[in-house]
Design goal:
26% of the residues lie in helices and 33% in strands. It contains ten helices and 20 strands. It has helices at 43-51, 73-76, 93-103, 108-122, 137-149, 167-184, 195-201, 219-224, 229-234, 262-265; strands at residues 4-12, 18-27, 32-36, 58-63, 66-67, 78-81, 155-159, 187-192, 204-209, 212-217, 241-246, 251-254, 257-260, 276-281, 287-288, 294-306, 311-317, 320-326, 337-343, 347-351.
């Protein structure tokens, strides 16, 4: 296991494009860190700098206190799993997993022992004599992971390893990766654009946008205490509802509904008089009908999506639209007029100009 630290790390390409800005992060031994964000946000570039596949333009990267900016991937003792499986098609599963040890000149007896142990962890024991073409996508990805963990390095790097799998395989592989991490105990950095993967796997999540770190925290911290509109909207499925409105007399209008901000903002409400704010609430953080200590909103049902364990209800109030997540047994009829409540404690307010949360 290894401790990693990135201090003011930047990546600027020769054409002047600034891909990563002042990235700062300390990763503890054995921690599972997930970089998450939309395509082009800099998460894979940061991972490649950690791996030694990309040069660091400025800043320092240390492993166990040693600066390693100029060291190559092999000298950093990291193992990387890519989006593509990168398996050798003319080699069996056994030989693919053993390949790194074979290059190192490890004795055959040791190789066999470690391959068999790795295959058992990954559920590949019955497939060791097969070639990659005879495996499913999930099985190929397990082979790619096995080739990495057999080396017993202190750092695992995974770049969107599940993106080529179907939905069912992704769910299965998520649990398997979590189990492998627990058994191997290595420091793991995992890149994905899928916030569900991030929430279910991570000890801590690094949310990135346009090369900047937006927030670092546990899944619970990011879900309940987002620092800005981007994080609040990126974490959660369906995403948080946002309504932008101007404060007049300490109130805002949500369609025909007048919302008094005092129960949420308290004495701060006067500071936002005449300014625009962003009113946010999560789809699942509502109650159908009227409730105490809550805003009552009248709306019209436009669409419903029955998903089994819940129903997404799309509503409109004036020109404002929102998604509600309700119990399927309480699904309202299409075009019905409904009242739903947003508890004060479940409301998030953001400054419209800075998009930062208003505490």
């Amino acid at each position: 296991m290894s401790t990693l630290e990135l201090k003011n790390v930047n990546k600027i390409y020769p054409n002047g494009f600034h891909a990563v800005h002042d990235f700062n992060l300390t990763i503890d031994k054995g921690e599972f860190i997930v970089f998450v964000g939309p395509s082009g946000c800099g998460k894979s570039t940061t991972l490649r700098m950690i791996a030694g596949l990309e040069d660091i333009s400025s800043g320092d990267f240390t492993i166990d206190g040693k600066r390693v900016n100029e060291l190559g991937p092999r000298e950093r003792e990291v193992a990387m799993v890519f989006q593509s499986y990168a398996l050798y098609p003319n080699m069996t599963v056994f030989d693919n997993i053993a390949f790194g040890l074979t290059l190192q000149g490890v004795d055959d007896d040791v190789i066999e022992e470690r391959v068999l142990k790795t295959a058992k962890i990954l559920g590949l024991t019955d497939y060791l004599d097969r070639f990659p073409r005879a495996l499913s996508g999930g099985q190929r990805q397990r082979v790619a992971i096995g080739r990495s963990i057999i080396r017993k390095v202190g750092i695992f790097l995974m770049d969107e390893p599940l993106s080529n799998l179907d939905a069912k395989q992704r769910v299965t592989m998520r649990s398997e990766i979590a189990q492998i991490h627990r058994e191997a105990g290595a420091t793991t950095i995992y890149v994905t654009h899928d916030q569900t993967e991030a929430m279910t796997l991570a000890d801590r999540i690094v949310v990135m946008k346009d090369g900047y770190v937006q927030q670092i925290g546990t899944p619970k911290e990011l879900y309940f205490d987002p620092v800005n509109v981007f994080v609040a909207g990126f974490i959660g499925e369906p995403p948080m509802n946002f309504i932008r409105a101007k404060v007049k007399g300490g109130k805002i209008a949500l369609g025909e509904n007048i919302v008094d901000l005092a129960p949420v903002l308290g004495d701060k409400v006067s500071a936002y008089e005449g300014k625009r704010i962003v009113f946010g609430f999560r789809p699942e953080a509502i109650e159908l009908g009227k409730a105490e200590d809550a805003y009552q909103i009248n709306a019209l049902v436009e669409l419903t999506e029955m998903l089994g364990d819940n129903t997404n209800v799309y509503v409109v109030a004036g020109e404002e639209r929102a998604i509600l997540k309700v119990d399927p047994h309480d699904t309202p009829e299409m075009d019905a007029s409904i009242t739903f409540s947003i508890p004060y404690k479940n409301v998030y307010l953001f400054d419209d100009e800075t998009e930062m949360v208003i505490k």
